[in-house]
Design a protein that fits this description.
Helices cover 40% and strands 19% of the residues. The protein is an alpha/beta fold. It has 2 domains: 128 residues, translation initiation factor eif-2b, domain 1 (Four Helix Bundle (Hemerythrin (Met), subunit A)); 222 residues, Rossmann fold, CATH 3.40.50.10470. The protein has a 7-stranded mixed β-sheet, with helices on both faces. It is globular. The relative contact order is 0.12. The structure holds 5-S-methyl-1-O-phosphono-5-thio-D-ribulose. The site of 5-S-methyl-1-O-phosphono-5-thio-D-ribulose has 18 residues, from helix 2 and strand 11.
Length: 364
């Protein structure tokens, strides 16, 4: 996607081959800053501290992290150590495990002398694959949007509600849930997005809003608690979110608060779609409650960072100093609340049969 007229992806190898460059998402929306990852430890830190985030981008960054490790030491021990380090960076998004397994399968059989070049080639290929997958998700999602818009008589904009950031910043390019929004907007369909702020880290208010503004897509940021009200008043035509892990029977684990939106959507008859690239499917799990839920630092709840009117960044306390906070980062939305899964191979019901019909080669 473009930033100030220049095409960007979220991660790319630096031209001199000495680092991978990323967009530091902790600085957005107030500053657009790129930064270099020179070592595997840098990549691990970028994932853990959420300079990069979003399930597909976490996977891509891990792949580049393995390359950075192999540049320094391509021994079996170093390969295992890189795998171990990166895998522990964040527990919920299964793309991390998937990308690391792919890198291990690619590099393991090779002589150490061949590993660094092969790792770079494979990381670049995985990044390209992610961009292509998300573009396809956008096309399939656009068909869903068109149908929904026709159903409302093509009157007014199609009002779409999304949670967290499942845009191009969460992937290598295009995004998952936002890909159909970009495709619809680019095709001339009037679309308007309700952007959940997504406490505590505000990926909606900071990142989704920044992306949509940048692309010119009409939107409003709303507090997380507004969605139910908007749905009851008929101001939402469909919801679409991303997912960090989807089980073989279609349970969906995504940013905390997604479940509540799905409950409200079911109560009000608003279709609730989830967009996902197939590497986000965990074929080893059936039940969403078996997905590990990341617990993050209490400070993300008790404090908030923003820009003052004077232009400086400031972090302020929100809660009484003595109040402890809990910070589960993800929740599970059961398949029964999901209208459809939008994948790179098409749209299917959130069920064992639905996923198996699209991915017969993987489900086995
Ligand atoms: O904690 P984050 O910001 O990594 O969480 C991201 C999400 O929950 C996204 O919705 C999910 O990764 C899908 S992104 C294409």
């Amino acid at each position: 996607m473009r930033v100030q007229g220049e095409a960007y992806r979220t991660i790319w190898p630096r031209a001199d081959g000495a680092a991978a460059t990323i967009i530091d998402q902790t600085k957005l929306p107030h500053a657009f800053v790129t930064t270099d990852l020179g070592t595997c430890a840098d990549a691990e830190h970028a994932i853990r501290a959420m300079l990069v985030r979003g399930a597909p981008l976490i996977g891509a960054t891990a792949a580049f992290g393995v390359w950075l490790a192999m540049r320094r030491d391509a021994s079996d021990t170093a390969l295992d150590e890189a795998h171990r380090l990166l895998l522990a960076a964040r527990p919920t998004a299964v793309n991390l495990r998937w990308a690391l397994a792919d890198m291990a399968a690619t590099l393991g059989p090779l002589a150490p002398s061949a590993r660094a070049d092969a790792a770079l080639a494979r990381a670049v290929a995985l990044a390209d694959e992610d961009a292509a997958i998300n573009a396809a998700i956008g096309d399939h999602g656009l068909a869903v949007f068109r149908e929904r818009w026709r159903a409302k008589g093509e009157r007014g904009p199609l009002n779409v509600l999304t949670h967290c950031n499942a845009g191009w910043l969460a992937t290598v390019d295009w995004g998952t849930a936002l890909a159909p929004i970009y495709k619809a907007f680019d095709a001339g369909m009037p679309v308007h997005v309700w952007v959940d702020e997504t406490r505590p880290r505000n990926q909606g208010a900071a990142l989704t809003a920044w992306e949509l503004l940048n692309h010119g897509v009409p939107h409003h940021v709303v507090v997380d608690n507004a969605g139910g009200h908007l749905m009851r008043r008929g101001q939402v035509d469909l919801c679409i979110t991303g997912t960090d892990r989807t089980t073989a029977k279609g349970d969906v684990c995504n940013k905390i608060g997604t479940y509540l939106k799905a409950v409200a959507a079911a109560d009000t008859g608003v279709p609730f779609y989830v967009a996902l690239p197939s590497p986000t499917i965990d074929w080893t799990l059936d039940d969403g409650d078996d997905i590990p839920i990341e617990e993050r630092a209490a400070e993300e709840v008790t404090r908030v960072t923003g820009r003052t009117d004077g232009g400086a960044l400031a972090t302020v306390a929100l809660t009484p100093a003595g109040s402890p906070a809990a910070n589960p980062a993800f929740d599970v939305t059961p398949a029964r609340l999901v209208t459809g899964l939008v994948t790179e191979r098409g749209v299917c019901p959130a069920s064992t049969e639905g996923l198996a019909a699209l991915f017969a080669d993987r489900a086995a």
